[in-house]
Amino acid sequence: MTAQLGGTITPADGLTLTRVGYGAMQLAGPHVFGPPKDRERAVAVLRAVVEAGITHIDTADFYGPVVVNEIIREALYPYPADLHIVTKVGARRGPDGSWILSRHPEDLKAQVYDNLRSLRVESLDVVNLRLGGVDAPNDDSLAEQFGALARLREQGLIRHLGLSTVTAAQLDEALAIAPVVTVQNLYNLADRQDDALVERTAAANIAFVPYFPLGGFTPLQSETLAKVAARLQASPQQVALAWLLRRSPNIALIPGTSSPEHLRENVAAAGLVLPDDAVAELNGIAG
């Protein structure tokens, strides 16, 4: 089954992730706020994720908030031994659904405990520290925040640490404090500003997890992608995911969906073989 999911990546002892994972954000209501319209369907999608052999689910207690983690618990608890739930801290939600950056060390600690409660676990597999803005990093030091999470790791509340929306310099700063197993940044066919960071993380055996893997295409870029997809008898989304898997062996995907049918399409992308001429054409998409 793992071959059908693009194989696996093992960024740390005890942490083996299928390269095609699942992002649970879309299981919440509109704008990632409130409950889903169809909770039973959300539960069914999560169970289909595990049945497909996926061992990598990405979530956060601020999705909903709390709603998504509760659905994961309802659908999958007690969790399969090989399933790794990756969560993130660094934000909260306002009563109006607004996103509020929340990175004081004490609040990060509280968010870790929130995730432990909502997922009903004694230790979190991976906690990503979310930094930067909506889709781009800043240059702030992360030492205080990452140090706080490193102390929780030493206490056994977290097994592994990761980062989200960071620069190469921030990654180096974090590595001087504690091991990093994942970096989750904006990256896709159209937006490749992190090419060097992909290479940097690959050399260090750190999983690079692109978010918005299917977003940000101009009409011209979309036309090119659609033409390649038509030749390969695949969907544009499948081609974009297949390109990411081919881009580097340390890339792990977390496409999200609330549809079992769409989930099957995403899984099938791992088996899509991109000919060299298609790759060359896709490589020209970046702006």
TrEMBL record:
Entry superkingdom: Bacteria
CDD domains, per database record: AKR_AKR13B1
Pfam family, one: Aldo_ket_red
Cellular compartments per GO CC: cytoplasm
Cited SUPFAM superfamilies: NAD(P)-linked oxidoreductase
Keyword Oxidoreductase: yes
Protein name: Oxidoreductase
Source organism (scientific name): Streptomyces alanosinicus
Keywords, in A-Z order: Oxidoreductase
Annotated NADP-dependent oxidoreductase domain residues: 20-285
GO terms of molecular function: oxidoreductase activity
